[in-house]
Design goal:
254 residues; alpha/beta; Rossmann fold; 10 helices
């Protein structure tokens, strides 16, 4: 199974993983700034972007496929679904990951009695049902949710939409399978096994991965630090670019 990997820059390896329904183009706004200090490996997850020929399987299979596509030693930055993949990869391929950056993500995306810091099953089920009825409207609604309560929301939605269309629409089956990965996986029992130096970045206006979930994750990782970007929602690297870059570069350069 071959994934599309965009490589650019110079310096230590840094692998970037995007979120559900998107592709590596979502990093375009921070790519050049990061490439000035790091050798970037921007991966389109299975079934997304230019990796449309690669099947979206279980979380474990997705993480293994990503591990095979990235350098043998690399910093790893995962956002949203990409952050869930990064957690599983860092746990099972720990020697491959130098430092771990988790952005607007969580060990469990689905709400439960013992985990209120997540979206309800009804929300995820609704996205799944609407995908087959009106793909474009569903994706646009999901994109708007990611930048809810942030400045310039319309510009940010358009930027996310442009990232999708630049590499073609994601296959509906792949979207449904990836949504199922978000719905069914719970990595909380393994959070304490993530021993790499880690940075957890979170926005306090995030409607998809609430701030308490990110703080819980940082508190339960042995070598993690937590940073909250005020007024940011689910895509802080877009809405608060300079603050995001400052946090990442400070952490990785230590």
């Amino acid at each position: 199974m071959t994934l599309f990997v965009e490589v650019s820059g110079r310096g230590p390896n840094l692998t970037l993983l995007h979120g559900w329904g998107l592709n590596g183009a979502v990093w375009n706004g921070v790519r050049d700034a990061l490439a000035a200090h790091y050798m970037l490996h921007i991966i389109d997850l299975p079934g997304h972007g230019l990796s449309h020929g690669a099947a979206t399987l279980s979380l474990t299979a997705m993480a293994d496929t990503v591990a095979n596509a990235m350098p043998k030693s690399s910093h790893l930055l995962g956002w949203s679904l990409g952050g869930l993949v990064a957690q599983d990869l860092a746990r099972r391929h720990g020697k491959r990951v130098d430092k771990l950056v988790l952005v607007a993500t969580t060990p469990r995306f689905l709400q439960s009695d013992d985990w209120p810091h997540a979206v309800s099953s009804a929300v995820l089920a609704d996205f799944g049902k609407r995908l087959s009825v009106n793909y474009a409207a569903t994706i646009k609604s999901f994109l708007a949710l990611q930048v809810l309560n942030t400045p310039n929301i319309r510009d940010l939605v358009n930027e996310l939409q442009k990232a999708i269309t630049s590499r073609g629409a994601t296959d509906l089956k792949a979207l449904a399978a990836a949504l199922d990965i978000l719905r069914t996986n719970d990595l909380r029992p393994y959070t304490s096994m993530l021993t790499q130096p880690a940075l957890v970045i979170q926005g306090d206006h995030d409607a998809l991965t609430p701030e308490p979930a990110a703080r819980w994750m940082a508190d339960h990782m042995p070598n993690a630090r937590y940073t909250m970007i005020a007024h940011a929602a689910h895509a802080p690297f877009m809405s608060h670019r300079d603050a995001f870059l400052r946090e990442v570069d400070t952490f990785l350069s230590i």
